[in-house]
Design brief:
Blueprint: H1 23-42, H2 49-56, H3 60-88, H4 90-107, H5 114-124, H6 130-141, H7 147-178, H8 183-190, H9 192-208, H10 217-223, H11 225-233, H12 237-242, H13 245-275, H14 280-292, H15 297-312, H16 314-336, H17 341-365, H18 374-396, H19 403-418, H20 428-442, E1 447-448, E2 451-452
Antiparallel strand pairs: 1-2
Protein name: Nitrate/nitrite transporter
GO molecular function, one term: nitrate transmembrane transporter activity
Membrane topology: Multi-pass membrane protein
C-alpha cells in the first residue's frame, strides 16, 4: 500500500493569543513562560544583593565582578545554543537548558564566600542562553508579517521575569524571615523557589512543544527527504552568517539595548537602595517597574518593526530600529542625572520603554538576515547583548565612578551605536524576496521553507 504523505503546515500569519489549538500558539505560550522563569532564576539574587553584600562583606568592585559573571558565560552559551538549535531543534535544546540551569539556581544558597558565590553566579548565567531558543522557536513558527511581533512578545513577556523577580523575591525573603528564618538563611531558601520551577518547566517544554510547524527535527530527518536536503544545504550557512557584517552590526546594536537592560536589572535595586535611602522592599518594587515594562514595550518594538516592514520593506525595519535606539540613549542620559525620586522613576520608565522597543525592533530584523541559519544569527546577536552587559559591568565596578556617572557614559555610547544601524543593508533581490513572502503572508498563505502553502483554517 502506498503511504499517504501528510500535508506540511506553514508558518502562522496571525497571532491568536487565546488559542492553544495549533502548534504555533502552543509554542508561543510555552516558550514565553519558559523564558519568564529563566529570567526569574537568572536575576533572582539581584534584589537580594543588599542582604548578601552585608553577609559576605562584598566590596563595590566585587559586586561589579558578580554582575559581570552573571552575563559573561551567557556570551559563549548563546553562540553554542544558536548552533544547537539549527542542528537539533529548539525543543530538546530548551529542555536541557531548563533542567541543567535549575541546579545552580537552587544551589547558590550553598555559597559561603565571595569566591563560591561568584562561581554559582557564573553558572546561573547559562540559562540566559534560553533567549536564543525563544527567538529561534517563534521565528520558525510565524510568518514575516507577524514574526517581529511574535519574537518581541515572547521575549518581552519573558524579560518581564526580570521585573517580577525584583518584586517577588524580596517578598519571599520577607516571608521566610517572618516565619523565623534568619536573613542569612532566608535568601538561600528563597532561591530554591525559582530553581524548582525551572526544573518542572523543562518537563513541560519537552511534552507540549514541537520544533517546527511540521513536527520535530529528529522525526523530519527520518521521514522527510526534502527536509534532509535543506538541512544539508544549511551546513555552510553557519560560516556565511559569521562573515556577514550585518550580523555583527546587530550584535553591537543588541549590546547597546539588551546589554543595558540586564545591567539595570542587576543594579536597579541596589541603586535605589543606596541613592535614595529606601528599604529593600521599596527599592525592589521600583526596580521591578523597569522590568515590568516588558509586558508591552518590547512588543511595541516588534509591532512597529513589522508595520514599517510592511510599508517600507526591510529597510523600514532598520530605520525604526535606529530611531528607538537613539531615543534609548537620550532617555538614559536624562535618567542618570535625576536626583528627585518621583522624577527619577518617571524618567526610568521612559528609558525602559525605548530600551525594550529597541530589543523588539532588533529581532524584527534578525529573521531576515539568513534564513538557513536563523539559530546562528539569533545566537550571535543575542551574545552581543551579554557583551554589552559585560562592558557596562566593567564601567560600573570602577570605584572612582558613581553609578550615575557610569550610566551617563553608557547613554552617550548608546547614541553613538544607534548610527551603526544604517550599516545593516539589504540587496534589491533580498528586498524583493522578502516582499513576495510578505504579500503571501498578508494574504493568509503561510510560507514553509520558501514555498507557499495553503492557508490553515485554524490560524
Amino acid at each position: 500500500m502506498k503511504a499517504v504523505s501528510t500535508p506540511k503546515v506553514g508558518k502562522a500569519s496571525r497571532i491568536n493569543l487565546f488559542s492553544l489549538a495549533t502548534p504555533h500558539m502552543r509554542t508561543f505560550h510555552v516558550t514565553w513562560f519558559a523564558f519568564f522563569l529563566c529570567f526569574f532564576g537568572w536575576f533572582g539574587v539581584a534584589p537580594l544583593m543588599p542582604i548578601i553584600r552585608e553577609e559576605l562583606a562584598l566590596t563595590k568592585s566585587q559586586i561589579g565582578n558578580i554582575v559581570i559573571s552573571s552575563v559573561t558565560i551567557t556570551i559563549f552559551a548563546r553562540l553554542l545554543i544558536g548552533w544547537l538549535c539549527d542542528k537539533f531543534g529548539p525543543r530538546v535544546t530548551y529542555t536541557y537548558i531548563l533542567i541543567l540551569g535549575s541546579l545552580p539556581v537552587m544551589f547558590i544558597g550553598l555559597s559561603n564566600s565571595y569566591e563560591s558565590f561568584l562561581l554559582f553566579r557564573l553558572a546561573i548565567g547559562i540559562i540566559g542562553a534560553s533567549f536564543v531558543v525563544t527567538q529561534f522557536h517563534t521565528s520558525m513558527m510565524f510568518g514575516p508579517n507577524v514574526v517581529g511581533t511574535a519574537n518581541a512578545t515572547t521575549a518581552g513577556w519573558g524579560n518581564m521575569g526580570g521585573g517580577v523577580t525584583q518584586i517577588v523575591m524580596p517578598l519571599i525573603f520577607a516571608g521566610l524571615v517572618g516565619f523565623g528564618f534568619v536573613e542569612a538563611s532566608a535568601w538561600r531558601y528563597a532561591m530554591v523557589v525559582p530553581g524548582v520551577m525551572l526544573f518542572l518547566m523543562g518537563i513541560v517544554y519537552y511534552k507540549f512543544t514541537q520544533d517546527t510547524p511540521e513536527g520535530n527535527v529528529a522525526d523530519l530527518k527520518k521521514s522527510d527527504p526534502e527536509y534532509r536536503m535543506k538541512a544539508a544545504e544549511a551546513k555552510g550557512a553557519f560560516w556565511k552568517a559569521c562573515k556577514d557584517i550585518r550580523v555583527w552590526m546587530l550584535f553591537l546594536i543588541y549590546g547597546a539595548c539588551f546589554g543595558i537592560e540586564i545591567t539595570i536589572d542587576n543594579i536597579a535595586a541596589i541603586y535605589y537602595f543606596d541613592k535614595f535611602k529606601l528599604s529593600l522592599e521599596t527599592a525592589g518594587l521600583i526596580a521591578g517597574l523597569f522590568g515590568m515594562m516588558n509586558i508591552f514595550a518590547r512588543t511595541l518594538g516588534g509591532y512597529f518593526g513589522d508595520k514599517f516592514g510592511i510599508r517600507y520593506g526591510l529597510r523600514g525595519r532598520v530605520l525604526f530600529l535606529a530611531f528607538a535606539l537613539f531615543m534609548e540613549g537620550v532617555t538614559l542620559l536624562l535618567f542618570s542625572q535625576m536626583t528627585v525620586l518621583p522624577i527619577a522613576i518617571a524618567t526610568m520608565l521612559f528609558f525602559s520603554l525605548f530600551v525594550k522597543m529597541s530589543e523588539g525592533a532588533t529581532y524584527s530584523v534578525v529573521p531576515f538576515i539568513n534564513k538557513k541559519a536563523i539559530g546562528t544569527v539569533s545566537g550571535i546577536v543575542g551574545a552581543g547583548g551579554n557583551v554589552g552587559a559585560v562592558l557596562a559591568g566593567f564601567l560600573l565596578k570602577e570605584e572612582n565612578l558613581t553609578y550615575s556617572d557610569a550610566l551617563f557614559i553608557i547613554g552617550c555610547v548608546v547614541i553613538a551605536v544607534s548610527f551603526t544601524s544604517f550599516l545593516v543593508k539589504f540587496s534589491k533581490a533580498h528586498e524583493a524576496e522578502a516582499q513576495s513572502e510578505m504579500d503571501a503572508s498578508l494574504g493568509g498563505i503561510p510560507v514553509t521553507e520558501g514555498k507557499l502553502k495553503p492557508a490553515l483554517a485554524e490560524i
